[in-house]
Amino acid sequence: MNERRLRRMLLATAPPDEIGAQRRAWRVVRTAFGEREPTPWPIRHRRPIAAAAIGVAALAAALSPPGRAVIDEVRDVVGTEKVVGVPQARPALFSLPAPGRVLVTAPSGAWVVSANGSRRRLGDYAQATWSPRGLFVGASKRHQLAALTPKGEVRWSLARPRVHAGRWSPSGFRIAYLSGSNLRVVAGDGTGDRRIGPAQNVAPAWRPGAEHVLAYANRSGPVTVLATDENRTLWTAAGGAAEPVQLEWSADANRLLVARRLPGGQFALEVVGADGRRLQSLVFPGRFVDAAFAPAGHRVAVVRRVGLFSELLVVAADTLRRQQVVFRGRGRFSDVAWSPNGRWLLLGWESADQWLFIRSTDVSKIEAVEGLAPQFNPGGTGTGEFPRIEGWCCPG
């Protein structure tokens, strides 16, 4: 027997327990991949791990035909994009880092989260809005608008077709809401409901102050600012063909932010003064998601999606070019809210199923909570859908 024939015989001989060895190797790779050490920044680079996993599987595939099934399984796992959020996140919402209560909506209904982390379900409502000082909640579902206490007691309800986007006035005496494609206003006690006019599907925004002044997206195109008690138009802000997607007033009532969707994966932020003069306008790359004025001053928290990543920016409304990237992560951010004292930002990271409480715009501290979807889906059989942040209001 010569050396060449001996080599062929050895190569043709199956190693002992070959299939079992392949499966054990795959378990080791999969366990190592799942237990890898988190990096301090939420944007994870998984290429080295993926390359190692594929290399081990390729070796198994080279040994025999059953190994090719193993490499197929590796491709399935490595090819699935899983967003890894902030490491060492708390498994549940034990408390809020600042005073106040958070109003939340989920497929299971509307919820109030207290400062100590306790949650109370208000009922089967799809959207909700705080009244001033958090004394009441305006909630809507399909064909009903209701006023509730934070304990879920119904004070009154109103039947109207396709109710959504309700907003309680700063005075506490009015609620503006959309019914289908119409804007309507009702008194805070449920009386005097009336139609204002046709409107686009954009939530209206009350100007802070005792007067009942409302900004809304008129069906005919311009953003209209209206004194609702007299049904008198104060001014309009035309935006051409750019579609408005959100309206927000600053706390001092001197700035109205208009976010507009633009073609080509862009959006524009427009700042209008209290007299209707356009003060600033700037085009941003990415898809607009959400915006919120700080409780004081003219800073605006803006959430946008750029490619595979999302960003939380804080923008100065008086210049718009003064921008700060507060947080960036893979996947989708859902919404943002300021704490009542303005010291914290609450960011929803839908793709990671996390809430991020970010201390100040220089990110001096981040408190992350994971598993939000199942927490607002008690008794559910699945993970549930990610909850929406409707507002972070005053202490109760």
Structure keywords:
396 residues; alpha+beta; Methylamine Dehydrogenase, Chain H; four-stranded antiparallel beta sheet; 5 helices; 28 strands; 43% strand
Structure description:
The chain is α+β, with helices and mostly antiparallel strands and 396 residues long. It has two domains: 3-35 and 45-78, no CATH class; 101-393, YVTN repeat-like/Quinoprotein amine dehydrogenase (Methylamine Dehydrogenase, Chain H, 7 Propeller). 15% of the residues lie in helices and 43% in strands. The protein contains five helices and 28 strands. The protein has helices at 3-12, 18-34, 47-63, 66-78, 372-375, and strands at 101-106, 109-113, 119-123, 127-130, 137-141, 144-148, 154-159, 163-168, 174-179, 182-187, 194-198, 205-206, 213-217, 223-227, 232-237, 243-249, 255-262, 266-273, 278-285, 287-293, 299-306, 309-316, 323-330, 333-338, 344-349, 354-359, 365-370, 388-393. The strands form seven sheets. Strands 3-2-1-28 form a four-stranded antiparallel sheet, with no helix packed on it. The chain has a four-stranded antiparallel sheet with strand order 4-5-6-7, with no helix packed on it. Helix 2 runs antiparallel to helix 3 (47-63). The model is unreliable at 26-80 (pLDDT under 50).
Distance between the termini: 91 Å
Can you tell me the residue ranges where pLDDT is under 50 for at least 5 consecutive residues?
A: 26-80
CATH top level class name of the largest domain: Mainly Beta
Q: What class do helices, strands and sheet pairing give?
A: alpha+beta
CATH architecture of the largest domain: 7 Propeller
CATH fold-level label of the largest domain = Methylamine Dehydrogenase, Chain H
Give average pLDDT, whole number. 84
